[in-house]
Amino acid sequence: xxxxxxxxxxxxxxxNNLWETFIKKNKNVGxxxxxxxxxxxxxxxxxxxxxxxxxAVDNSFCILLNNEVVCIVPLILEKNGNENYFSTxxxxxxxxxxxxxxxxxxxxxxxxxxxxxxxxxxxxKLNKVVKSIQAIDxxxxxxxxxxxxxxxxxxxLDASIGTIIINLKNSEKEIKSNIRKS
Length: 182
Description:
Blueprint: E1 5-9, H1 15-25, H2 35-47, E2 55-58, E3 61-65, E4 68-73, E5 76-80, E6 83-86, E7 95-96, E8 99-100, H3 106-126, E9 129-132, E10 134-135, H4 140-143, H5 172-177
Parallel strand pairs: 6-9, 7-10
Antiparallel strand pairs: 1-3, 2-5, 3-4, 4-8, 5-6
């Protein structure tokens, strides 16, 4: 039997309640998924000096299966001049991508993730998005048995954060001179 997924957009009357309930039920969801944070990112974009026709819009959505939220997708559309982005702060900040319920089995997670990224792609085409910036919430490492960079499956570049060990006994000048620029 094929699963039937439904999308609830952020203009739905129950959206905020569904979103926040999902967050409370899933340990793998960090603070950057909160509706407060999403709203703050939209407002931050609007408060910066931008081109005259800059705008930021919350396009976040939930995915339901059997009347239960199984995935939340924070998604901000930024329009700056003639270029549109799924990001915050015009590609400076990434948003965490779709996060899925911890209760789901691996095969169902894959189907839901595929559905979520198809919807992101559809919205990108509809809005003529030139770049989409997504990241994986590091909290998933502690809760997902199958943790890996699934963004690569959807043609996102692997721009994983590099780690650096700094010897704090060195002077500030020495520390700065030892940082690789590439």
